[in-house]
Write a structure and sequence with these properties.
Number of helices: 0
Structural class: mainly beta
Shape: globular
Strand content: over 45%
Order of helices and strands: EEEEEEEEEEEEEEEEEEEE
Radius of gyration: 18 Å
Number of strands: 20
Largest sheet: 6 strands, mixed
Distance between the termini: 34 Å
Oligomer: single chain
Length: 205
């Protein structure tokens, strides 16, 4: 499955009032899907986005750690190798192409991820090694917890493009018409639905 639903949702809170928002991602079995990446990007180009950050993806026991990392555009990511063997990190993804020849320790400076999109990482020596960097240009972003839930304390009113992605999902998109609304008062609205599951959002005022 590649659970990539793409929907345009509107938060019609009062003009000067932010409100909490909750999203839950469920599989066809009704269980929450942990580790789903969620982004809310405002349709207002004047809205500021989070500043770039410095982050690390290590290599331990022939695996990348963490397996999925979400960062704002312009962020710098270092790739130390604390494993007992050497690795050669690379990506051929359109959002970021680079290669770090065979190494251990910290011989290379951090890479700058300045284009939004999903970056798939691999190792030329160990084919089982995979990791993902999700680079976002959105105002709000994060990952669902063990129950498949993602919560925000304060979402500013406005219209947002909502994207949902998981590394095990199929490469498909589900688009809803402009103006889908987030329900208020604790009610829940299912705004994305696919073969492998669905998601629901609710906002409290």
């Amino acid at each position: 499955m590649r659970l990539v639903f793409h929907a345009l949702c509107a938060c019609f809170a009062s003009k000067a009032m932010a409100a909490p928002l909750e999203l839950r991602m469920l599989g066809v079995d009704g269980k929450g899907i942990a580790g789903t990446v969620v982004t809310l990007r405002s349709t207002d180009p004047a809205r500021p986005v989070p500043r770039p950050v410095d982050a690390l993806i290590d290599q331990v026991d022939r695996q990348f750690e963490p397996h999925v990392l979400v960062v704002p555009t312009g962020s710098k990511i270092g790739f130390p190798n604390t494993d007992s063997v050497r690795h050669q990190v690379y990506s051929f993804s359109p959002a970021k192409r680079f290669e770090l020849p065979l190494y251990r320790g910290k011989p290379y400076p951090p890479e700058v991820f300045d284009r939004a999109g999903v970056v798939t990482l691999g190792c030329n020596i160990h084919d089982q090694m995979r990791a993902y960097v999700y680079v976002v240009d959105a105002q709000y972003f994060g990952r669902t917890d063990a129950s498949g839930t993602w919560k925000l304390a304060d979402v500013q009113p406005g219209t947002y493009i909502v994207q949902i992605w998981h590394p095990l999902s199929r490469d498909s998109r589900h688009r809803h018409k402009r103006g889908d609304e987030i329900a208020f008062g604790g009610k829940e609205v299912h705004f994305g639905r696919g073969i492998q599951g669905h998601c629901a959002m609710r906002q409290f005022l």
